[in-house]
Design goal:
The protein is mainly α. About 65% of the residues lie in helices and about 0% in strands.
Length: about 170
């Protein structure tokens, strides 16, 4: 059964109700709101990015869930790699204080990933589930997340000792 488009200009990814929520969440995170009097759009990603650490980790988690869902629906390996790079680039640069907050308003990784998947389906390169690739990407992202958490722990421990010693 066909689904209705999320906006008049943007068709849905595929005629698949399971992917409609991916488009909706991506839009909420990256382009749901419009700055009054302009054409500039933003979502919850840059707003959550204003919360140190917790905001960046939550947007990373949401982007990862969207990415895994898109992978489950048969995105080819090269498309998945581009999607992962979008998410990692958004997470790493977005974590930089001040610059990252400005960057989050401009770089819309989830919208980019939905657009990549849509182009992938339009080109007819859909290939099935890609379970092995999903496992590999999940392990890589968990490793990245673990290293990030460890690095933050070391940084805060060092800062704590520096403050205590002063």
């Amino acid at each position: 059964m066909p689904t209705t488009p999320t906006s008049p200009r943007t068709p849905t990814l595929v005629e698949d109700d399971r992917l409609v929520w991916v488009e909706r969440i991506a839009r909420l995170m990256d382009s749901q709101f419009r700055m009054p009097g302009t054409r500039f759009r933003f979502g919850l990603d840059p707003v959550l990015g204003l919360l140190p650490i917790v905001g960046d980790l939550s947007t990373f988690a949401i982007s990862t869930v969207l990415l895994v869902t898109m992978m489950r629906h048969g995105a080819k390996g090269s498309v998945v790699v581009r999607m992962v790079l979008n998410v990692l680039f958004d997470t790493i640069v977005g974590a930089i204080p001040i610059l990252g907050n400005v960057f989050d308003f401009a770089y819309k990784a989830n919208d980019r990933n939905v657009r990549l998947l849509r182009e992938h389906y339009v080109e007819g390169k859909y290939q099935g589930s890609g379970k092995g690739l999903i496992a590999l990407v999940l392990i890589g992202m968990l490793l990245f997340f673990g290293l990030l958490a460890w690095g933050l722990f070391v940084l805060f421990t060092w800062l704590w000792h520096a403050i205590q010693g002063a």
